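Support reply, case 0932

Customer input (verbatim):
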Amino acid sequence: MKMNEETALAVAEFLLQIKAIKLDVNKPFTWASGLKSPIYCDNRKTLSYPKVRTYIRQEFVKLINEAFGTVDVVAGVATGAIAQGALVAQEMGLPFVYVRSSKKGHGLDNQIEGVIESGQSVIVVEDLVSTGQSSLAAVHALREAGCNVKGMVAIFSYNLKVAEENFKAAGCILNTLTDYEHLIKRAHEQEYIKEADLKSLVEWRENPQSWSDKFID
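Our regenerated output:
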């Protein structure tokens, strides 16, 4: 489904305003993988701003209804999307579960927390998609439980090629409210970044590893 341009730019601006997303091409951020990046994203900050979280919730509901139709359950990916998913489920009047990155290893050894049954249709809510591996681990767990995963919605995606390949290989549809392209477009328009930074930001998206390597001593 084609991204809604108005929504994509509005969400991008919200993320920039509340500093959920930070951009710096000169002093890059280090991801957990060790990759150096000019962008850092923490969408949990959206929960602290009622106007922002309400807008995101409503746009998620609209996107789910338009792209996927009727679903039985909303599933949030732990931990960043638990609250986002619960807000969406509440608004839609649907049951909610969340999916851990792996089984607990104790107690009931659950990976899916909440009540879900084989055969139910599920929409997965995520806050952020980078490579897609952790997001798709949740999809795999739900499928193992016998669920029909209709697809995934996320607030933001870096639009990395590897993520596109991973979602395609998994046969999972991904729709996001905004993405990297809309973010840097809005950041440039609102002067969060300088003209000279644009080239570097585009280069990172095209080849994150090559861009990262320039900052390794």
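We compared this against your earlier run and they match. Two observations from our side: The longest helix spans residues 50-68. Helices lie at 5-17, 50-68, 82-92, 133-144, 161-170, 180-189, 195-206, 208-213. Please reopen the case if you see a mismatch on your end.
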